[in-house]
User: Which sequence fits this backbone?
């Protein structure tokens, strides 16, 4: 009741903040969807029941859910899948997936909004990816008798203290879930400490481990590079999912390599595409020739050393990793928590990352123990690591093999999740 009252008091601020974010990022506000109103033309795709609602807040969670979406379609081909996201970039990625029949924005957590949408969609099962715990939504799910499942659950170091201080609040919220599938034993212990019942909790490992291993042949790699106007023998560094404050050290490191007489092409992929203009400006100031991905079709000459491609689109990073000789995984030189190191490892590319990996601590430890990646302390170390690895093709080849062997050892999380889902949805 207190939570709902606070939400009502926050209503003007919620609307204004959301409108500001939408306008500033050049995206539609979609207020109708966020208050539970979906056009009949869209909901007709999932009419008649037999629906599974999967909620993934943003890009990372949507990508993490892909193996599970594929498995759900294979196991339950007669079911319809609704995929909801909170962020606009998450929705862009969701719309590119073939499994969902309907992609929607997740409603604001007002009881009337979530109740309306639940009664419109009428799901047989609700699946929430990672730790998206919305109290009113989960209360309405439980009150309608719909089984619900938290998948790929985790409790980060940063959020643990807050959850523990508010455990009196989260205990009844967690009780609304039918089952809680956690990434690790530590995550399971943490969510039980917050208030989950032990019989609710299952350790199913990390869905992000279940990436398909894709190793291109030399011919396939050359063809993939050709589509991006990259010469087959060029040295390519991909900086993926960079955040504000990381572009500068990456650019400085690559500029240093060029000034030392090396030849390379940089593919820079900001985590948020709206930062592409800022990244392009930094590159030009450093003396790079710059092409935006959205303007690539207008270009008719291949890239040459000292040029950069800035990717201002969502969902293209996994197509770029196989083109690289080296990958830097962003979100790690600034205290953001890191991103998934297994993505470049799954395509056999040696990788580097910074010290801030709190959201992927287990994965970063596995990568380091396997010898598939190198952790650097800052931008200066990044430049030195780039230089040493470019001088040592044998080391790069060994790191690639180590990454592929690590991927072969990991996996199985999807099937563990599906075993729990099968108990809820025979």
Assistant:
């Amino acid at each position: 009741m207190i939570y709902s009252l606070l939400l009502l008091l926050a209503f003007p601020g919620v609307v204004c903040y959301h409108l500001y974010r939408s306008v500033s990022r050049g995206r539609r506000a979609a207020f109708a969807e966020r208050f539970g109103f979906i056009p009949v033309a869209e909901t007709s795709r999932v009419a008649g029941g037999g629906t599974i609602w999967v909620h993934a807040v943003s890009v990372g969670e949507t990508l993490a859910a892909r193996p599970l979406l594929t498995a759900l379609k294979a196991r339950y081909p007669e079911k319809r899948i609704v995929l909801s996201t909170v962020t606009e970039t998450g929705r862009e990625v969701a719309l590119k997936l073939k499994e969902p029949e309907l992609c929607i924005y997740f409603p604001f957590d007002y009881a009337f909004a979530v109740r309306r949408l639940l009664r419109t969609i009428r799901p047989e099962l609700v699946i929430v990816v990672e730790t998206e715990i919305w109290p009113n939504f989960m209360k309405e799910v439980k009150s309608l008798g719909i089984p619900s499942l938290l998948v790929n659950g985790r409790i980060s170091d940063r959020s643990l203290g807050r959850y523990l201080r508010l455990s009196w609040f989260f205990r009844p919220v967690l009780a609304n879930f039918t089952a809680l599938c956690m990434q690790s034993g530590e995550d399971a212990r943490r969510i039980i400490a917050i208030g989950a019942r032990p019989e609710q909790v299952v350790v199913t490992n990390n869905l992000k481990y279940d990436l398909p291993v894709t190793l291109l042949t030399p011919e396939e790699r050359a063809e993939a590079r050709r589509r991006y106007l990259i010469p087959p023998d060029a040295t390519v560094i991909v900086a993926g999912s960079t955040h504000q404050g990381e572009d500068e050290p990456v650019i400085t490191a690559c500029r240093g390599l060029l000034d030392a007489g090396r030849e390379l092409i940089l593919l820079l992929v900001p985590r948020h595409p709206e930062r592409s203009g800022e990244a392009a400006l930094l590159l030009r100031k450093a003396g790079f020739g710059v092409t935006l991905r959205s303007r690539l079709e207008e270009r008719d000459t291949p890239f040459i050393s000292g040029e950069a491609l800035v990717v201002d689109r969502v969902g293209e990073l996994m197509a770029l990793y196989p083109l690289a000789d080296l990958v830097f995984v962003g979100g790690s030189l600034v205290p953001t928590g890191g991103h998934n190191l297994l993505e470049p490892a799954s395509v056999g590319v040696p990788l580097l990352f910074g010290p801030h990996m709190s959201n992927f601590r287990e994965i970063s430890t596995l990568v380091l123990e396997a010898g598939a990646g190198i952790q650097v302390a800052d931008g200066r170390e990044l430049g030195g690591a780039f230089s040493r690895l470019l001088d040592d093709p044998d080391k790069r080849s060994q790191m690639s093999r180590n990454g592929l062997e690590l991927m072969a050892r990991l996996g199985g999380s999807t099937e563990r999740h599906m075993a729990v889902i099968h108990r809820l949805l025979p």
Observations:
- The domain at 28-210+412-424 is CATH 3.40.50.11720 (Rossmann fold).
- The chain has two domains: 28-210+412-424, 218-406.
- The chain has a mean pLDDT of 93.
